[in-house]
Automatic annotation (TrEMBL):
Residues 2-234 form the Nucleoside phosphorylase domain. One of its GO terms (cellular component) is cytosol. GO terms for molecular function: adenosylhomocysteine nucleosidase activity; methylthioadenosine nucleosidase activity. This is 5'-methylthioadenosine/adenosylhomocysteine nucleosidase. PANTHER family: 5'-METHYLTHIOADENOSINE/S-ADENOSYLHOMOCYSTEINE NUCLEOSIDASE, 5'-METHYLTHIOADENOSINE_S-ADENOSYLHOMOCYSTEINE NUCLEOSIDASE. Its EC number is 3.2.2.9. The keyword 4Fe-4S does not apply. Keywords: Glycosidase, Hydrolase. One of its GO terms (biological process) is nucleoside metabolic process. It comes from the Bacteria.
Amino acid sequence: MTLGIIAALPQEIADLLKLMKGQMQTHTVGMRTFYQGKIGGQSCVLVLARVGKVAASATCVTLIQKFGVDRIIFTGLAGGVSAEVNVGDIVIGTSFCQHDMNAEPLFPRYEIPLLGKQYFVSDSELNAALIVGTTQFLQGEGQYSLQRMLPKENIDLFGLTNMKIHQGLILSGDQFIGSAEAVLELRNNFPDALCTEMEGAAVAQVCYEYGTPFAVLRVISDKANNSAGYDFTRFLNEVAPVVSSGILLNFLLS
């Protein structure tokens, strides 16, 4: 079994690359570098997708077609949409929708033309395993934990003393949501949405079409409001690599 791990930004996979042991091989396909090796005894292909739905889709197809991965996990950051979601919380997506898909009047809004689907669902077994890895990370039960991997200064700085796990709807679109007005529109159109990002629903569609189990793990970096740009940059550089890699390492070692 080979697991494909995708991230959108370099900082999100930096720590995982350091831990990929054994005879790691690198392959360049479609202007992307794919790192093939093992993490915790698990065969993996690790890749930086870059940002956006097209980038994520192209990367996903390459993992399936060229490297023959059996499962895919996308990890990265997201902006909170639900009032119940706060900075530092973990969202494991169970369903996905492209909030900027609109082919009206030919097709209903948000529906993928010719597929007849607005929402795509992730793999329940992968989700359950990620919840275990996340719980271990937050509660200090696993080999890799928040307290061991992140300095107390950063935990206090970003208020990461009460991080929570959420499961539910993740929205994707080719835009950085950075205003209260945009968040309100998403809430009105998708009352159950937890967060928004730029890749998950595209990965979900590709995996649906290829019959490949997948999961999406998101760390909330901002509230997708007027301070989103500032919060996102700081969180990306100081916290994201630790949280993403810690959770995934617990997942891989379980």
